[in-house]
Amino acid sequence: MNNNTLSSNLERIKNAVDDIRENIGGETIEEVAENSNGLARLDDYFNTNPTDSANVINNFPYEINIPSNTTSLVNAFSDWPFTKVPKINFGSNVTDIGRIFSSRASNRGGTMPLSQIDLSGWTFTNITNISGAFSCLKQITTIDFSSGQGTFDKLTNMGSAFDSCRNLQHIYGMEKFNNAKITAAGLLFYYCVQLKSVDLSYLDLSDCTNFQSICGECTALQSVTFNKNIIIGSNAMRVSGMFRNCSNLVSVDLSMFNFSKVPGNSYENNFSDIFSGCSKIQNVVWPSGMGDGYSTSLSQYNSTSSINISACPNITRDSLLDLFNKLSDLVSAGKKRQRIYLHSSAKSRLSSEDIAIATVKGWDVQ
């Protein structure tokens, strides 16, 4: 068996431990799980006998050694009915662990009962992709990378890594990502509704093109930190909904971001709803370059090229002035006028002179 397809075979080791022992020649489940040929036979077995998951929960071995020449563990343990994952040991040849524990199977609806993961047997050195790795693990409360071997020196894709981890409260060991140069981070913490703090200061996001809903629907989020020593997002296109419905977020500093490439011509490629539903937001240090990426053909008052912060009644005058001062001058660039939508309470804090800073650039304040 090609060990690159090991993940597809591992995926099927879900059920029927007692029956397995009767049907594959009397070997123990431990022996089968650690043998590539055994995994191939288990793959065939589970095609016809996908039952009895309780036996897996009670009898699966506590440790699995992945063959040394394995490179991909994509979907390897997706939707297994674990209450805890066995210790999984793999070396530096593994490059892709996308959706390794992802739980989206329709028959379980993302209710994989996993509450903890031991990462001490993982080697991070050559991993390039962790997209969706832990997504929809609704019971997980803590993920700790500090026990793993090496650092994520070659990691580029983190998209949806923790998407919909509804009980996730703590992520430790983010220093393991210190050398990672991330190009995709969309939906990274989407719908992590118990997460109160996110520290992304360890990540090099200078070449990241996708920030869409990176913290969207994180309703408990109170603080988020980015690396202030680099310029982030110079090539970003997808930034919509970055903090959508983060209803407990009060302050955020995005001064290190540059949105000059965002075209504002589609739902994904706009910054119009970055703070949609952020009812408590007060202090925002805005990105630079907003509107620079708009084309002259973009229609006037386009819904995806306007800026809508009408759900933010508490945003301060200083924050609004920072926004107005950083906006692209659409008039000078020969581009069509767009709108800024404010809550009436926020607009009442502005003088006519304040509003004129935006309108003279081609941004009408509503």
Q: SSE string, helix = H, strand = E?
A: HHHHHEEEEEEEEEHEHHE
Task: Report the span from N to C terminus.
Answer: 63 Å
Overall pLDDT: 84
How much strand? 5-15%
Strand order of the largest sheet: 9-10-11
Rg (C-alpha, Å): 24 Å
Structural class: alpha/beta
Q: What share of residues is helical? A: 10-25%
Q: Shape from CA axes? A: elongated
As residue ranges, the low-confidence spans are 1-30, 32-58, 105-110
Continuous helix count: 8
Total DSSP E strands? 11
Profile the largest sheet.
Answer: 3 strands, parallel
Short note summarizing the structure:
The protein is an alpha/beta fold and 366 residues long. The protein has 8 helices and 11 strands.
Report on the architecture of this protein.
With 366 residues, the chain is an alpha/beta fold. Helix content is 16%, strand content 10%. It has eight helices and eleven strands. The strands form five sheets. Strands 9-10-11 form a three-stranded parallel β-sheet. The protein has a two-stranded parallel sheet with strand order 1-2. The N and C termini lie far apart (63 Å).
Write the layout of secondary structure elements.
Layout: H1 6-10, H2 17-23, H3 29-33, H4 36-48, H5 53-59, E1 63-65, E2 87-89, E3 142-144, E4 170-172, E5 197-200, E6 223-226, E7 251-253, E8 283-285, E9 307-309, H6 317-326, E10 338-342, H7 344-347, H8 352-359, E11 363-365
Parallel strand pairs: 1-2, 3-4, 5-6, 7-8, 9-10, 10-11
